[in-house]
Design a protein that fits this description.
Helices cover about 40% and strands about 20% of the residues. A hairpin with a 3-residue loop joins strand 13 and strand 14. The termini are far apart. Helix 15 crosses helix 19. With about 850 residues, it is α/β, with parallel strands linked by helices. The chain has 6 domains: about 180 residues, TIM Barrel; about 70 residues, Ubiquitin-like (UB roll) (Roll); about 80 residues, Orthogonal Bundle (Helix Hairpins), CATH 1.10.287.1080; about 210 residues, 3-Layer(aba) Sandwich (Rossmann fold); about 210 residues, Rossmann fold; about 35 residues, Single alpha-helices involved in coiled-coils or other helix-helix interfaces (Up-down Bundle). The strands form 7 sheets. An 8-stranded parallel sheet has the order 1-8-7-6-5-4-3-2. The structure holds nicotinamide-adenine-dinucleotide and L-histidinol (HSO). L-histidinol binds next to helix 17. Nicotinamide-adenine-dinucleotide binds next to helix 4, helix 19 and helix 20.
Length: about 850
């Protein structure tokens, strides 16, 4: 976070803007035309009344702006479409309450305009935007000072200072010197008050040049003049190069993480930084920087027989070598060969750059600018380089919006998946296709931890507070206990009949899975080993309820718990806005014999079941799908040995993979893909096409677009379909191999010989065989369970089943005759491990038997 953020006004003079660019990003209002150097970070402020303009926002971000600062009305439109870490919210004190959870999650911080500097207000904004950056722009700050800057930093926020309040001259009542403002944050832990300062080379990718010291005075002078100025411990202020000519231009000055050391990123002139006339006091250059230096020196003076000189003089030779080396790199196979060929290519590419006056720093700047783009081009190869029969799009553009390069949004956009041909993509690209849209599990775990901790420590009070905060419901009690009042379970007759039939099918299939008999094996005469199952006593079932009410999930978790014989079943689900629980979920709760219904969702519900509260019973195992808050909380509590709780599996967003050949019905295929795409914006659906012609594929794509636009959840579908893929394959075996590697939650086989293909399946949560087995049947009522492993975990996890609610206990009974044979084996192994007591427990008995 910056010490302060300068807000550029149109009257700002260029020397002041340059100085500000050296010490951090600057805020540039979108309508203000002030030239800012390429190396300076820009935050673009949309602080005017014009109507929402997504293209403008995207243009600024693509153009290299680090962030955009947008009003709440714009954030409503943008949240979830553009990366949150590129967006700050512009807030007036008056409109804090207009910020929804969706907006809060869609931004990385806030710039709050406030008439007065109110620390209480700042800390409540801070809490509301937990973990985000908070910048404060006082609309009536009269005299900016170091103490004001420190006061705001103390609240973990940063002050925004308009350029009219900043000066390169001495501070006055109305203006503060830029250097003085910057050093406000510095604290020295040295007796002499100096700051250790690392000097690094900007053009050489941050190579360390040396270690020096700075004083408040030297830093201030450097910021204002843009020259390297330090503090010699013997000779006072040290203007680098004043006598030797080896001056420095300062590009950036950075504070370290605890503000007691500094880095000066400089362009070093003359003989170098070191007094030994070398660039650096540390080691010499290596790698690409060393190559660049050699090439630059060859360009200015090279021996006659130099090959590099020949390349400089013969552009067509250089061109041919670049093409040759690029081709060799593409064909290299081993790690060593790839490194070898890449080094050759870089040598010729750098020769081309140095000949054109392009430096490594120019290349890095270009890379950094590209990394800031929020729209990606499809990445197709130009026709002369494209493989014959196919034009695959880039696998790396997972975050890419629609094929036209704009975020999906306008109603007339074609809703389409991205297409790849397995026969032309590389191994690396294939492995990219197997990955799901990025899941930030570490980040989510740290966000949910405070919620879990609060519920563990403060029980029901915290639980009710979080329900009020996240679900906007004020409850007097978080639970309903049996017997549930009749009015809470009243449902439509047709729904009741459907639930009853689904219950019967699910129960029938799950009863058949129960292990009721004891497994017995006599491993040696007189040595009988057995294994028997017992129910897990107390189970917690999470039934999602954020965007859709899911009584089907209550069935899928409740039936196996009941069949397994669990003694205490707690069902947790977010309350509706009137504080009640959906009657359908309550009906199922009664049907499966739940003893408690917890009216809470998200991380707080998981924590309540893991630790127990005054009213919520503690459980031994937590089951069920949910959004990222639920999943992160489940992962967190299962790792806490104090909670002593396990979970069913790490679940994630819903997904389906459909394998279709030319006998498939395109409308059925499209409907199956969309049935999972509608779950959430992070759902992913995959179509693996087996020898489909372009017109057959076209028919599926058109059906997806047409059906999607008729769905009530079309806004969700637009986003999930944009992240989804079509993979072209040339045989059923190749298609199933891809599916096994992907390990989908659901696998649907739209194949001529669908049932034969089942034998090839190695990894999948549940399989749907043939044209009349839509995945929806498994979601609701066929009898199989719909709580299944996602995100590739079908490689090692099974879906929820009756055994998930049981644990196994083994036992053994050894007779005296049995011990006569087994005993010596055991005693020998115990001796071998040096565990005398183990051996003794056997020998003491053997002695008695033999006597
Ligand atoms: N794999 C499966 O078997 C399966 C089945 C059904 C649903 N799902 C998945 O379950 C998920 C359901 O998600 P959902 O959101 O609809 O319901 P949910 O019940 O999982 O989550 C809603 C709760 O999340 C919490 N929450 C929301 N925003 C928060 C925030 N900013 N901070 C803290 N807590 C917050 C709230 O407490 C809210 O009650 C979807 O991703 C769906 O794909 C999976
Ligand atoms: N398809 C989901 C599992 O990924 C389960 C579900 C519930 N309701 C409808 N579908």
């Amino acid at each position: 976070m910056s010490v302060f953020l300068p807000l550029l006004e149109s009257a700002a003079d260029s020397a002041l803007v340059d100085a500000l660019g050296r010490i951090g990003p600057v805020i540039v209002p979108s309508l203000v035309q002030v030239p800012v150097s390429d190396t300076c970070g820009r935050y673009i402020l949309f602080d005017h009344d014009s109507s929402f303009d997504l293209d403008k926002v995207v243009d600024f971000l693509d153009g290299g702006a680090e962030k955009v600062i947008i009003p709440v009305s714009w954030a409503k439109e943008i949240a979830g479409t553009l990366p949150a870490d590129r967006i700050l919210l512009l807030l007036d004190v008056a409109n804090v309450s207009a910020v929804t959870d969706k907006i809060r999650e869609g931004v990385s911080g806030v710039l709050i305009k406030t008439p007065a500097l109110d620390l209480d207000l700042i800390s409540s904004v801070m809490r509301f935007f937990s973990d985000s950056s908070v910048y404060v722009l006082p609309t009536t700050l009269e005299s900016p000072s170091q103490s004001t800057i420190r006061k705001i930093l103390g609240a973990k926020a940063a002050l925004v200072l308009p350029t009219s309040q900043l000066t390169l001259g001495a501070s006055t009542k109305d203006q503060i010197n830029v250097g003085e403002a910057f050093v406000s944050a510095l604290t020295s832990d040295r007796r002499d008050g100096l700051f250790a300062t690392v000097v690094s080379s900007y053009p050489q990718g941050g190579k360390s040049l040396g270690l020096v010291y700075s004083s408040v005075e030297s830093i201030k002078e450097s910021i204002v003049t843009g020259k390297g100025v330090y503090q010699s411990r013997k000779h006072g202020l040290w203007r680098k190069g004043e006598t030797s000519g080896a001056t420095q231009d300062v590009v950036h000055i950075f504070l370290d993480c605890d503000s007691d050391a500094i880095e000066f990123s400089v362009i070093q002139h003359g003989s170098g930084f070191c007094h030994l006339n070398r660039l650096s006091c540390f080691d010499d250059l290596y790698g690409l920087s060393a190559l660049e230096r050699t090439l630059q020196s060859r360009l200015s003076s090279a021996p006659e027989d130099s090959y590099t000189k020949r390349l400089f003089n013969d552009q067509s030779l250089l061109r041919s070598k670049i093409m040759e080396e690029a081709d060799e790199l593409c064909h290299a196979e081993t790690k060593e060969d790839v490194a070898f060929e890449a080094a050759d290519l870089l040598y010729f590419a750098m020769t081309r750059c140095v000949a054109a006056g392009v430096s490594l720093a120019d290349i890095e700047r270009s890379l950094d600018k590209k990394a800031k783009k929020v729209t990606r081009r499809p990445g197709n190869a130009k026709p002369q380089f494209a493989p014959k029969a196919a034009q695959p799009t880039s696998v790396y553009s997972v975050a890419a919006p629609a094929a036209n390069g704009k975020p999906n949004g306008a109603d007339n956009d074609f809703i389409r998946m991205r297409t790849f041909d397995l026969s032309v993509i590389s191994k690396v690209e294939r492995s990219q296709l197997l990955r799901r849209p990025v899941l930030k599990s570490d980040e989510m775990i740290s966000k949910v931890k405070p919620i879990v901790d609060e519920v563990r420590d403060r029980g029901d009070t915290a639980l009710l507070e979080f329900t009020a905060k996240f679900d906007k419901v004020n409850l007097s009690s978080p639970v309903l206990h049996t017997p549930f009042p009749d009015e809470t379970t009243q449902i439509e007759e047709n729904v009741r009949q459907a639930i009853d039939k689904a219950y019967a099918n699910i129960r029938k299939f799950h009863e058949a899975q129960a292990e009721n008999s004891t497994l017995k094996v006599e491993t040696m005469p007189g040595v009988v080993c057995s294994r028997f199952a017992r129910p897990i006593a107390r189970v917690g079932l999470y039934v999602p309820g954020g965007t859709a009410i899911l009584p089907s999930t209550a069935l899928m978790l409740g039936v196996p718990a009941q069949v397994a014989g669990c003694q205490e079943i707690v069902i947790a689900t977010p309350p509706k806005s009137d504080g009640s629980v959906s009657a359908e979920v309550m009906y199922v709760a009664k049907l499966v014999g739940a003893s408690t219904v917890l009216k809470a969702g998200g991380g707080q519900a998981v924590a309540a079941m893991a630790y127990g509260t005054q009213t919520v019973p503690k459980v031994d195992k937590i089951f069920g799908p949910g959004n990222q808050w639920v999943t992160a909380a489940k992962m967190l509590v299962q790792n806490d040995t104090d909670a002593l709780v396990s979970i069913d599996m790490p679940a994630g967003p819903s997904e389906v993979l459909v394998i279709a050949d030319s006998t498939s019905n395109p409308d059925f295929v499209a409907a199956d893909l969309l049935s999972q795409a509608e779950h959430g914006i992070d759902s992913q659906v995959v179509l693996v096409a087996v020898n489909l012609t372009s017109s057959e594929l076209d028919a599926v794509e058109k059906a997806v677009d047409l059906q999607a636009k008729a769905l009530s959840r079309v806004d969700i579908v637009r986003q999930s379909v944009a992240k989804s893929i079509i993979v072209k394959t040339s045989s059923v075996e190749e298609a199933v191999k891809f599916s096994n590697d992907y390990a989908p939650e659901h696998l649907i086989l739209h194949l001529k010989e669908a049932s034969q293909a089942v034998s090839l399946v190695q990894n999948a949560g549940s399989v749907f065989v043939g044209p009349y087995s839509p995945e929806s049947c498994g979601d609701y009522a066929s009898g199989t369970n719909h709580t299944l492993p996602t995100n590739g975990y079908a490689r090692q996890f099974s879906g929820v089943n009756t055994l998930s609610f049981q644990k196994h206990i083994t036992s053994q009974e050894v007779s005296a005759d049995g011990l006569k044979v087994l005993g010596p084996i055991v005693a020998t192994l115990a001796d071998c491990e040096g565990l005398d007591a183990h051996a003794n427990a056997v020998r003491i008995r053997l002695r008695q038997i033999l006597n």
